[in-house]
Amino acid sequence: MYGKKVKLRLLFIVIILITLVLTTFLILKSLEENVVYFQSPTEIKSLMELDNNKIRIGGMVKENSIIINSKEVNFIITDFKNEINVSYSGAVPNLFSEGEGVVAEGFLKDRNFFYATKILAKHDENYMPPEVKEALGDK
Fold first, then answer.
1. Residues 46, 113 within the same domain
2. Tens of pLDDT along 97-111?
3. 14 and 1 in a common domain
């Protein structure tokens, strides 16, 4: 019914399509492991089921909540509706302070406690590093 050239072209197109689908699937599957979801304390409180995946929690560092021990830093992240206690071992960024925005990456222990593996301090669009501010003030 079909000639040899048509069958060969059809086979070639099918092989290319299968290769594209398989490549796309493998790329998406590998990216899935590196995705870290961002949630607020209110979203965490409303979770139906806790999982052991790495997540990011964002909000403001509650005033008078930072407690620095010799090995860890404990503080509370709030979105002004709910709060979550955070424990972090390591050096915190220079912009980390009470009343400022922060994103903590790590794992939930329960709905009220979060173990952070990384702290990312946030700043607004008006932030200027002290070195730049000094350099501009001198001129």
1. yes
2. 888 888 899 998 888
3. yes
